[in-house]
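Anyone opening a protein record will find just a pair of labelled lines. The record below illustrates this layout.
***
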Amino acid sequence: MKSMSIEIKTLTPIWTGGVKGNCDILHETGIIGSMRWWYEAIVRGLGGYACDPVEQGCIFDKGKYDDAKNEGKTEHEALHTAGLCDVCQVFGATGWKRRFSLRIIHDITISAWKGKEMLNVCPPTRSHGWFLPAGRVGSFTLKIHGDSDVIARLVSLLLFIEEWGAIGAKPQLGYGFFKINNRDEIQEIREDAMDLSKIIYTKIDSLGLPDLRQFTFFRYRFKPSRNDWWTRVKGLQRLLGDPKAASKLSQLVKMEIIPVSPVLKNQWRYVEWPASSPAKRWIFGTIDQEKRRGKISISWAYREKNMWVVRGWAWLPEEERTKIGTIIQHRQGVGVVENILKDELVWKKALNLDNNSRTDLYVERLTNIDQIIKFLRG
């Protein structure tokens, strides 16, 4: 058995839930849940099978496991025979204990602002806007204990999430983006990690479940010509006229994190999106009777040396299966999102950046296993 400490610094607030809707402390379950979500997407993207634990999770059959071992199968093969997908082998299932323990230690996070009131970012022409809870900012350490192979897999996973994903809940609102402070130390473990591509290939349909072959990742870096650039962003300007909201925003500015995710989503959904496209509700989510989660997650702007960074991902499956089993095509909607994300002028307009601002935009859509393996290896 082996232990590993991963030192985390928040880039945007982290939200892991809590009593009465407040994230008063960080909860391990919220972080483990998001780690599993990303691990499932990676396994499916590499052609493997990852069950849907919400609908029908794996069940471990010890008799089949013992028979497989007696036949000379490897541990990995025997667990598959016993009914465990690649993800449940690590994260646990009915009859099979999770192969690692994770604790949060040295937690020195604080609330992103004083008070429990939400911050309402409401762009012009919008009547409601986006309501942002405080979340936790600062640093903490993840202490992970397990066998060396599992530790190596989790290190590889967390390094990937650090670069392209987020931990905890509410990534659609910009929460959970982070960096690893002891990266050089844990990179040594990653080099010895079992390649995540060494999974058992399957042709089982993963339609409707996160699959890295359906993801587009993006990163926008900019150096504004003005230090107070955020005061000119429409949607944030309104906050300056409200003393309480202005105080919250001021606290965030001192920490060099600016909540621009609602502003960008507003630009994409209500300004750039073609009125004739029927996929808008599917892409951006709804809050009516058929409440559904949006497909785009985007960080707040955070400072990285002399640049500001906004990054995120869009999970854009081209097909969707309805509850009655019919298939809906979303290829047109996927193309619209791709074009919007790749248009640097759209980013500049949303953030109200002038022509003297230096910018850099990276967008990549993953579509096949070879591409994903290269992406995972950096």
Remarks:
- The chain has a mean pLDDT of 88.
